[in-house]
Design brief:
It is a single chain. With 374 residues, the chain is α/β, with parallel strands linked by helices. The protein is built from 15 helices and 14 strands. Strands 4-10-9-8-7-5-6 form a seven-stranded mixed β-sheet, with helices on both faces. Strand 5, helix 6 and strand 6 form a beta-alpha-beta unit. Helix 2 runs antiparallel to helix 12, helix 4 runs parallel beside helix 12 and helix 5 packs parallel to helix 6. The radius of gyration is 21 Å and the shape is globular. The two termini are 31 Å apart. The site of 4'-deoxy-4'-aminopyridoxal-5'-phosphate (PMP) has 14 residues, from helix 5.
């Protein structure tokens, strides 16, 4: 622990009070929240909170067992049916979290005889899934299609599986999925896309980036705890894939099913995501992304992209956390992100935008950051 503290890597959890929204209450102080994944503001939407309450009253507070034993309720099924229809796939299955989903998918689909090919900036849950599978893993440079193709050409494996996020969690950039998919088709590999930060936000009805780019990867994963406003995750694909996961994914089988209230909120969140209200929220979020980029450029922070995840690179961990703490004192909660979440030396302040942020909020975020860095 001393070592972690010395290197500026010690972690502690802030306590937030109240309903999640553009303003958070930390230590009895109201601050602008630029740290949540509540992109569309649905975690505090009355319809989701009502649905969670009603579902709990109707079906109980807990699910009492794993899905395969006695924990599977009609609301679990309803969410899965909705996801399959929304994503346009044969079937879908819900996991307790995105971490569980990624670990479950990768460890069920790949073995020692296969090869997993993974983007170097993929999320920890993907890395852990790769490790649990015991498959050999090769890493390609972030979005490096040439390197990816070189790895795809390697033979001696039963099957190859390429895994990438669509919108990357700590950088906010969007993978060239169409090109990656093309390479997978050409070299006969399976493609798994983690849409944790795109589901609900990107594409028609928020179906994600794969859908927007006109491809259908074999394995499409997304979370229910970010834009959708509840918690949990889905995997969408063929009936065969989903049956395989239900039978083989240990992180699905050996854990208590999510509570009915959580599923009730997820279903209400998905319905909003796919509705005109979802379109309106996505449009506001997109406008905020553009405005935030413009404000950052004007304030002398070049190189940022428009989007709902905006890193401002600092480099050193300790300094990043100090800047984040000073922003918080100034009323702006934008968390510092450091090793091992991102590679060493690339620590950053990560601003996550919401559809509910106002122009005033965005201006305050940028002016506070600028004042802190002066
Ligand atoms: N994949 C990515 C890309 C993520 O950013 C996250 C969450 N930070 C997860 C998976 C895990 O999702 P969950 O929080 O639902 O476990």
């Amino acid at each position: 622990m001393e070592e972690l503290k010395r290197r500026g890597l010690y972690r502690a959890m802030p306590v937030l009070n109240g309903i999640p929204g553009r303003v958070a209450t930390i230590d009895s102080r109201e601050v602008l929240n630029f740290s949540s994944n509540n992109y569309l503001g649905l975690a505090g939407h009355p319809r989701l909170m009502q649905a969670a309450a009603e579902c709990s009253l109707r079906h109980g507070a807990g699910s009492t067992a794993s899905r395969l034993i006695a924990g599977n309720g009609e609301v679990h099924r309803a969410v899965e049916d909705f996801v399959a229809q929304w994503k346009g796939t044969e079937a879908a299955v819900v996991f307790g979290s995105g971490y569980q989903a990624n670990v479950g998918i990768l460890s069920s689909l790949a073995t020692e005889e296969d090869l997993i090919i993974s983007d170097m900036l993929n999320h920890a849950s993907i890395i852990d899934g790769c490790r649990l599978s015991r498959a050999p893993v090769r890493i390609y440079g972030h979005f490096d299609l040439q390197q990816l193709e070189d790895l795809l050409k390697m033979d001696g494996y039963r099957r190859k599986l390429v895994v990438t996020e669509s919108v990357f969690s700590m950088d906010g950039d969007l993978a060239p999925l169409k090109e990656i998919d093309g390479l997978c088709r050409r070299w006969g590999a399976l493609l798994m896309v983690d849409e944790a930060h795109a589901a609900g936000v990107v594409g028609l009805q928020g179906r994600g980036a794969a859908n927007e780019q006109g491809i259908v990867p074999e394995i499409q994963m997304g979370t229910l705890g970010k834009a959708v406003g509840a918690s949990g995750a889905y995997v969408a694909g063929t009936r065969q894939l989903i049956d395989l996961l239900i039978n083989k994914a240990r992180s699905f089988i050996y854990t208590t099913a999510a509570s009915p209230g959580v599923l009730g909120a997820a279903l209400a969140g998905l319905k909003i995501v796919a509705s005109p209200e979802g379109d309106m929220r996505r449009e506001r979020l997109q406008n905020n992304g553009q405005e935030f980029q413009r404000l950052l450029h004007e304030a002398g922070f070049p190189g940022s992209r428009p989007g709902h995840i905006v890193p401002v690179h600092i480099g050193e961990s300790r300094r990043t956390m100090e800047i984040s703490a000073r922003c918080l004192q100034g009323g702006v909660f934008a968390h510092g992100i450091r090793y091992p979440t991102v590679p060493e030396g690339t620590a950053r302040i990560r601003f996550t935008l919401m559809s509910d942020h106002t122009s005033e909020d965005l201006r305050k975020a940028v002016s506070t950051l600028k004042a802190v860095l002066r």
